[in-house]
Amino acid sequence: MYYPRLERAMARDGLGLHHIAAALHCSAEEAGRLLEEDGLSLSQARQVRDAMFPTARMEWLFAQPEGGRRDA
Question: Exposure check for the chain: N or C terminus, fewer CB within 10 A?
Answer without folding.
Answer: C
